[in-house]
Amino acid sequence: MSSSLRIPIEEARSLLEKQTAEERLLWAFQQFQEGFVITTSFGIQSSVLLHMLQKLQKECLIPVFWIDTGYLPKETYCYAEQLMNLLKIDLKVCQSNFSPARMEALYGRLWETNSIEDLEKYHQIRKVEPLEESLKKFNVTCWASGVRGNQTQHRSAMNFLDPIRERLSVRPLLDWNNKDIYYYMKEHDLPQHPLFEQGFSTVGDWHSSAPEEQGMKGRDTRFGGLKEECGIHLPGYLGEGI
Q: What kind of architecture, by CATH, is found in domain 3-225?
């Protein structure tokens, strides 16, 4: 078991609950130092946490892990470049050892089968395992993400600090809502993801994201409505691997 899990978690949760998002980020950095990283999807709200990180960094850069599945929309790749140029980011790209072409040759287009099991296999290959390999490579003990409690049923039960797969995950924005995100971005003049203007409230891979429509909002627009989570924020692996 990682030494990071030996900290008094309940005590830390009580402290984080009383803090602002920026204070939570600072707490995690002070607690875990070189074992602390940020994860980003360069999605609709990603600029908020990255901007807070920029304000936090002084003498050293805190690494930012980006899981590039190889299937992101071109708008996301362009947005990532825009934020990298705007904000001081020490970016580490996490990618699967399986190229998209190799994966499709061996397993087919897993997102087209309308099968939850195939989606879970896809997410494990392209998201969960690449992240875990990078966390292990950089000896990460705690990682922060921009998840919010109002996004999915699973996230509504999250704490500001939780153990995930032998590490800790801190969620500085867990109690934020859409208005909090909007006003923070407006106050700091942060650019919107290009797909936001096209009706997307959340965006991941090009084949598993859609704009909001009648009856389909938020995370309901992801993965063809079959599921809400890709597995990164779940406590264990999704499948048996490859």
A: 3-Layer(aba) Sandwich (3.40)
